[in-house]
Amino acid sequence: MxxxxxxxxxxxxACTKIGVCGKTEAVAGLEDLLTHAVQGLCIVAEAGRKxxxxxxAVDRFTAEAIFACLTxxxxxxxxxxxxxxxxxxxxxxxxxKVEAAxxxxxxxxxxxxxxxxxxxAGLEEQGSALNFITTLDANEDLQSLKQITMYGMxxxxxxxxxxxxxxxxxxxxxxxxxxxxxxxTTDMELxxxxxxxxxxxxxxxxxxxxxxxxxxxxxxHPVPTSVPLGHIxxxxxxxxxxxxxxxxxxxxxxxxxxxxxxxxxEMLPCHGYPELKKHKHFYxxxxxxxxxxxxxxxxxxxAIIFTTNCIQKPADSYKDAVFTTGLVGWPDVxxxxxxxxxxxxxNKALSMDGFTDEVDNGSVMVGFARNTVLGVADKIIEGVKSxxxxxxxxxxxxxxxxxxxxxxxxxxxxxxxxxxxxxxACGKFRFFDKDLGDIGGIPRLLDVGQCNDAYSxxxxxxxxxxxxxxxxxxxxxxxxxxxxxxxxxVILLSLFSLGIKDIRLGPSLPAFVTPNxxxxxxxxxxxxxxxxxxxxxxKTILG
Length: 543
Ligand code: SF4
Ligand code: SF3
Description:
This protein is an alpha/beta fold. It folds into three domains: about 10-220, Substrate Binding Domain Of Dnak, Chain:A, Domain 2, CATH 1.20.1270; about 225-350, Rossmann fold (3-Layer(aba) Sandwich); about 370-540, Rossmann fold (3-Layer(aba) Sandwich). It has helices at about 25-50, 55-65, 75-100, 120-130, 130-135, 140-165, 170-185, 190-220, 245-255, 275, 295, 345-350, 370-375, 375-385, 405-415, 455-465, 485-495, 515-525, 535-540; strands at about 225-230, 235-240, 260-265, 280-285, 305, 320-325, 335, 365, 390-395, 420-425, 440, 440-445, 445-450, 475-480, 505, 530. The strands form four sheets. A six-stranded parallel β-sheet has the order 4-3-2-5-6-7. The chain is globular, with a radius of gyration of 23 Å. The termini are far apart. The relative contact order is 0.11. Iron/sulfur cluster (SF4) binds near residues 5, 19 and 71.
């Protein structure tokens, strides 16, 4: 196996025997094989669009299959086998439709004629024999740019899938996914690949916009909400991942059953959505970021439902309480299918002890997405003009296990009291429960939401730039971002596509970015690694 797509990749180079995330060699090969097969489907889908053949089932499936390969989503080889076979079936059916419509498929890519082996073992052999990354390009810089595109596509596909689940789709997004996945099977020049990476970021803004419309259109705009970090007595269910519709279904199906629903990880911001928070049995938040789940989840006395990434190997002590749904999967863990009947998880929760005591661990505030923040824009603008607010920091992104991530805790603690911090995604769990006070009644720490709510943060930055009649780069705003998986990769590409410069990125730079490609990014965007200490970086930022 050779996988270097995430920040915790082995030795900062690649996982070659087993994933640090727990991914087996077999699953790594199957993910490669699925990506290869999807490229074939995308070549046909792109050719189809030229003759008016567009198949929404193919569009949706493509996004799902690409999302399935994102870090910490699915570890179940059986499901990858099914996806690989379905990809090839769809490819052949679509090929027939395209040819019948007079289209031609002008490609000699191996992905176009790939035939899956009959057996599971045969598929695994095909996956490892593929040496997928090396097939992208012999030139390591071009290979690097193709990897950036492909990993960006995983994040983009994730957001497009979430948006589609809430009824928000745009054919331009699917068309671009097909185009990009097909394009990286061809020989491309460095400049064209850089442009493809930036286009990936640009299209991702559209995907996040669709998701924002899906979330706010269905559940209302988030409002400032206090979320308890303790618990109350009673049976309980913990919901983690990113999927608001799954949470809504769980809340509806548990109503009146004497079950309290708690959020975990990236579900925390859901407490701010009016149509979710209205449920009386939707109580509080349990635990911190994904990498602590093996330590924290054994202490949760109820069922645990994963709606998306990040899943880690469930320890035996709580594995039978774990349920997966959507694209997330783990071998031998009960998977709730597309009917979204959460009955098995509810029955499990009812059979467990639940919490027997009441514990008050304080609370945190959520609900500071674009609508709330822009609702007090005049106060913020006044604060900047009167110098009550010196600087804004966007301090967020993914969390992870590396000790170097303490930088982000230190940064939150040391940012001076006349500066505001916008945060989002699971990186916030390093400082989410710190009382950082307020400036003129506005909390200094504003939780914008999940990683996809980077869209909301961008809207806030653009609105502030408009109010000050300057560009986003001219605002007193610094981006200090932590990354782990490929949603963060595509968000970074989105920020680049907007021309945002001087982003600090940590805890380490991606292994799949070569020195030459990094030079291009530094030259154009002055992206830089976080420094040794937050103290020094703060001095530099604030002058
Ligand atoms: Fe390694 Fe990350 Fe790939 Fe898992 S996803 S195998 S940890 S590089
Ligand atoms: Fe976190 Fe996995 Fe990236 Fe949605 S939950 S940000 S790491």
